[in-house]
Amino acid sequence: MKFYKKIEDIDPRLRFLICFFYSIFVAIEKDFSLFFYYLLLPFFLLPFINEFKKFLKGFFSVNFFIFLCWLFLPFSIPGKVIFKILKFNITYEGIKYTFLMTIKANLIFITNYILIFSSHPVRIVHALQHLYIPQKLINLLFFTIRYIPVIENEKNKIERAMRLRCFKPETDLHTYKTIGNFVGQIILRSYERSKRIYKAMVLRCFSGIFWVYYHFKWSKKDTYILISAIIYFSIIFYLKWNRL
């Protein structure tokens, strides 16, 4: 918990900017020799993981998708053939591209998870508002974050009702109709709830802006981290520029 508080003490706006520039640098990188420098930031952030089980769950989810890419991309990208499996050719370019994608996805996931997604969702939206993201997008994100648990609760109620009626999914017409009704009920209840929320907001004279009581404060520690981040990205940019 001690490490988590240290991460939370860093201004969320600064954490967003670091993740934004880091993700861009990593995403456009094609030189394998520079990934040693990109590894420094995630390596430094690893001790700050608070909920390790939740981190592993997200990590395995990302890499499961990448594993599926390994099953197809090495066969799909044309280039120098390394070996064949039946009638399929595995190319050097395909393996290189997939390996590069694997490294990039994991580096971006680790950095964004620790710096951003370990925070409360409302703080994330608040930080985006301070970074002058369009207000309509901010409102959309806020309502999405706020009402996903509400819709999930409605889904759980319907699932409990189905279990009480001894519903067992099978490959028959009754199951397909039941699942269709299940999805329709979720959509209908979400729509009805959205109308009630809209009427409540109209009664409260909602003007399109969510006013917040607590505002972020910039500290000396944030200044030191900002300077360190500028030096870090400047070194990477210098090394990348010299290799062009």
- What share of the residues does DSSP label as strand, in percent? under 5%
N-to-C series of helices and strands = HHHHHEEHHHHH
Query: Describe the biggest sheet?
Result: 2 strands, antiparallel
User: Quick one: how many beta strands?
Assistant: 2
Indicate the overall shape. flat
How many distinct folded domains? 2
Q: Counting H and I runs of at least 4 residues, what is the number of helices?
A: 10
- The largest sheet has its strands arranged as 1-2
- Assembly state of the chains shown: single chain
First CA to last CA: what distance? 43 Å
- The average pLDDT value, as a whole number, equals 85
Helix content: over 70%
Low-confidence regions: none
Q: What's the alpha carbon Rg, rounded to whole Å?
A: 24 Å
Structural class: mainly alpha
Task: Record keyword descriptors for this entry.
2 domains; mainly alpha; 2 strands; two-stranded antiparallel ribbon; 244 residues
